[in-house]
Amino acid sequence: MVSRVKTGIKGFDALIGGGLPKGLVSIVAGIPGAGKSIFGLEFLVRGAEKNEPGLYVTFSQASKDILEQGKQFGWNVPAFEKARKLKVFVIPVDEMNTDIFGLIEKEVKKIGAKRLVIDSLAELIINSGMYYITLKKTKHESLVTDMDLNGKLTFNSDVFGEKTNQQFVYLFVNKIKGLGITSLFVTDAPENGDYLTRDTVSEFACDGVILLHHMSMGTQEFRTVDVKKMRLTNQKKGVHKFSITKKGIVVSDESIGVYALK
Q1: Domain at 9, CATH number
Q2: Can you give the residue range of the structural domain that contains 179?
Q3: Is 39 exposed, middle or buried, given 0-12, 13-18 or 19+ CB atoms closer than 10 A?
Q4: Is residue 180 part of a domain?
Q5: ∠ CA 102-196-216, rounded to 5°
Q6: Whole-prediction pTM value?
Q7: What is the pLDDT of residues 219-251, one digit of tens each?
Q8: Residue 45: left if φ>0, alpha if ψ -120 to 50, beta else—which one?
Q9: Is pLDDT at 149 greater than 90 in this prediction?
């Protein structure tokens, strides 16, 4: 029997055998406005309601914006924070050359987190140059080409390119998995192409892939969710409609077709 963590998102757990496999890392991918951050925040809120503390890590959103986002769904995030059941942890972009994993690990232990959301992996990859060197714990002088007056490093694009980004994703995902908690990475999906994510590698590095999308059918427009992969799970295949209501996300149990997005 696989131990599962219920997301608490109405209708979603039925698609994945009752919940996310405990301790594994999944990604929630989609274009801007698809509902990725709401999905991640609700995952933590529903956990907090069950006394399962969660950590929301963001690199660009101010904590007040996340609190406001929760407020519109009636989620009292400040109360959960006060009770140490949920924490919004902001790591500014200009501090991303530090040991990010170390910072996250410290916060996870501080509140005894059982759930983790990182928003977003795409931003982390973009700013991963110096942090990649930290993860590898080696000098890599060939990566660095210059340092500006403010002490910011620039990188050799011939060395620090797509391959290095891919190595970074695998390294970071494995580090997070080592924490032993159930985690979601929010990331970007391309409008078209052969890959599910813009980075082209996190869909392989992570244990689960949840794709959120906008669809048009005639004059109708609606949102969809498609579980492309979930390890240790016999998930329901196909694309399912979902809506964002005043109380959170609601997923339909009826599939609108396996090939609807192609």
Answers
A1: 3.40.50.300
A2: 4-125+161-255
A3: buried
A4: yes
A5: 125
A6: 0.87
A7: 788 899 999 999 999 999 899 999 999 999 999
A8: alpha
A9: no
